Amino acid sequence: MLKKNYSILTTLLICLLSFCGNSLNIHVNNDSKLIEKIDKGLGNENYLTEDNSYFKEITTSRTNNSNVFVCPDVTNIAVAVTGVNAQITWDAGGTETTWQCAVQLAGSGVPATGEVVTTTPEYLATDLLPSTDYEVYVLADCGGEVGTWVGPIAFTTDCPVVGNLQSNNVTDTTADISWDPMNANTTAWEYAIVADGAGEPTGNGTPTTTATVSEAGLTPATSYDVYVRTDCGGGEYSEWEGPLSFTTTCPEVTDITVTDVTDSSATLTWLASGYEIQWDYVVQPVGTGIPAGSGSVATNTPVSVTGLNPDTEYEVYVRANCSFAGYSNWQGPITFTTDIQTDFLVDCSVGPTNVSYCYENNDTTMFQFTTTDIYTSLSVVFNSGTVEDGVDEIIVYDSDGTTVLYQGSGNAGDLTGL
Questions:
Q1: pLDDT tens for residues 236-264?
Q2: Interatomic CA distance for residues 399 and 331, integer angstroms
Q3: What is the pTM of this model?
Q4: Of 330, 182, 178, which Cα lies nearest the Cα of 246?
Q5: Secondary structure, 3-state, 76-130
Q6: In the chain, what is the straight-line distance between the N-terminal and C-terminal CA atoms, in Å?
Q7: Strands 343-346 and 368-371: what pairing?
């Protein structure tokens, strides 16, 4: 309680738990008085508090207030910086639940106003300029009365680390690398693509002003690590973000060819990339499409394929196996048609063997029929068919391959019943 000339002012209503300053605004009987702490016994306008401190009135003005109230200042302002964000906290000076917080460039001075904060004494400042000096002021608002701006509390933002580092569209020799800047004020970065396990770069990376880069000239079937950092200018950089690991794809085979085609076999060859350890190949009827399974394994080329059906269209697919880098894409289809069957083993106990054939110009195809036993004789019957009379002819040899049993064009080119 304040005492004037050691007399109690019964109309003074003030609630002060403690007073640590040298001056104080109070309201006494509709008078606004600014009093200042002085030595005991100086002057006639002295006030005495319960801790035996003396105060002297400095100014007086009329007000409509009848009570004394002081809005205490906040204390313990703290700033925690994360990248370009700053979490600001403080302790309330009393029971107030409203404040103003001003975050501004260092050296701006005492602010006129700030962001209104309610309920909890904390404020998050976001998207500040990177690597920049700032200052904080906080003002208590007691509703009708305010404290004084407390500050400045200085802090410096970091150069922000990028986020969401990704690799996309990876091929055997190229890859797209992208990231999120994490702050709209950052527009320059450095990136480094290094061998898997090489570790964080010790020098500069490749500069870029875009958050997506396309890298070419990579080695097929090889693992890499990616690092990216923000360039905030003036030699200020963020920490490296990474490693992001990716592996270039297994290169595809080329120049698939089919040779030495018979009625039941064919030879496959292709040009290897040099990074694979083996291959998968598939020979299937035309129109089947890209294989869904793994196919047959080959460790060398060429590859001989057997067991094919005569006079049938086939398609070939081949892919490389690069071990840890996986498989290449299937390459194909390469199509071919097997020859007609010309060598028949006839089991007479089962029944006749029927063959249909359409000859072409200058056709010298020879069919061979052999019985399943040495005791049964064979007969050849032409159920139907024609040749060009006087130009084309049919020759039937005996089993010795030299004795001609028949040579001619049938009945004026008609072979029916021959």
A1: 899 999 999 999 999 999 999 999 999 99
A2: 46
A3: 0.62
A4: 178
A5: EEEEEEECCEEEEEEECCCCCCEEEEEEEECCCCCCCCCEEEECCCEEEECCCCC
A6: 142
A7: parallel
